Amino acid sequence: MLASAGSILAAVAVFTLASVILVSAQLRGSLDNALRERAQEIAQLAVSAPAVLTDPGALESPVSGRQIAVQVIDARGRILARSLTLGARLLPQDALALRARVAGRTGFEEIRVAGRPFRLFAAPIAQAGGPAAGGAVVVASDTSDIAETIGHLGFVLALAGALVALAAALAAAALTRRGLAPLHRLASSAEAIELTADPARRLPSTDTGSSVSEVRQLTGVLNRMLDSLQEGRENERRFLADASHELRTPVTTLLGNVEYAARHGAHAEVLADLQRDAARLARLVDDLLVLEREADPEAAAAVLGDRGRVRLDELAREAVRDHEQAGGRRLVLGALEPVTVRGDGDALARALANLIENAIVHGPADGRVTISVVKREGRALLNVSDQGPGPDPAERERVFERFWRGSEASQRPGSGLGLSIVAAIVERHGGIVEVDGPAFGVWLPYA
Q1: How many CA atoms lie less than 13 Å away from 170 in the CB half-sphere?
Q2: Which of 33, 102, 309, 390 has its CA 20 to 30 A from that of 375?
Q3: Are 328 and 240 contained in the same domain?
Q4: pLDDT of residue 242
C-alpha cells in the first residue's frame, strides 16, 4: 500500500510541476508579447507623431487588460515622456536601456520597483527625426499577479493530487485486500492443518469469480502436494506395519529355537533351524535396506548422472553360470544380443536375480526358466519367463507391491519384497517392468 501511494504521489508531483511550468511559461509569454507590442507602438508614435507623447493619456492605455508603465528616453538618456502608472517612481535606466539606445537591441529583464516584481522590456527608437530619435522605449509591468496565479494553481493541483493519491491508495488497498483474501484463507487453512496434523484435510477451493487464476493454481498445487504427502505417509505406515508383521515371524521362530536350545541343549537340528531363521531374517533386513536405498532421490540422481556401461547379455550369462555352480538345472539362455545400458551393474544384477528367483518359486518344479536379451523398439529388453501360468490377471497389478505374495502366500517361501526391489531398481534406471503371463520384461534405454 505504501509503495502504491508513493508511486501515485510521485506521479502527481511530476504532473503538478509540469503543469505549473507550462502555465507559467504561457503567462510570461503572453506578458512578453504585451510588452513588446506596447513598446513597438510607442516607438512608432515617437517617430510619426512625437507631439502625441506629451498627451497625458497617450501612454496610459492598457494592453490586453494589463497596465504597462512607459518611459521614453532620448539619445542622451534623458526622459522625454512617461506614464503615470508608477506615480512618482521611475523605471531604472540600466544596461538594458543603454543597449537599446546605443546598440539598437531589444531585451527583457526582471526588476523590482518599490519591492514589487516587474518584467521590463527595452526597444530602440529609429533615427528618423524628432526629439526621441536614437533613444529608447522602456516598458514594464507588475508580475505579482502571475506569481499569485502560479502559486494558487500549484496549491490547487497539489491538493487535488493529494486527494487523488489518497483515493487511489485507498482503492489500491481495498483491491489488494480483496486480492490477498484467498491467500489469507490459504494461510489460515495451512496453519490449521499444521496444528491438527490431519493429513486428510485440504486447502479450501477458491473457484470464485473474485479469485485470480494464480491463486486457484496455487491451491491446486498445494492440495496435490498434500495428497502426495498423505499417500507417502500412508505408504510409510503400511510399510512399517507390513515390515513388523514379516519380521515378527522369523524373530519369533528364532527366539523359540533359542529358548529350546537353552532348555534342552543345542543339537544339530536346532542349530540348523537357528541358522535358517537367522538367514531368513538377514535377507529380509537386507531387502528392506535395498528398498530404502532405491527410494533415495540422491541415489536416483547419482544413477542418472555418472553411470557405468553395463552389458545386459553378459549379466544374463553370469546369472546362468552362477546358478549352475550353485546346483541349479532349470535356467537356460534364450535369444541374446549384445545390448549395453548405463547404470548400476550390481543393482541390475540383483534385479535379474530376483526375477529368476521369482520364476523358480512360481514356475512348475520340472519347468525351465528362460532368460533373453534383445533390442526392440529402440530400447533394451531383458526378459525372464517360466513355464507356469503366470500371475492371476486379477492380481497382476499388485505383484510389485511390497510384502504382497498373492493368494497362495502360505504355500511359497519369500518375503514379498523381491519384485518390489525389481520395480524400484528399474524405475531408478529410467525403465519400466511389464508382465505378460509368466514373462517379466524389463525395458531400459540404450547407453
Answers
A1: 5
A2: 390
A3: no
A4: 62
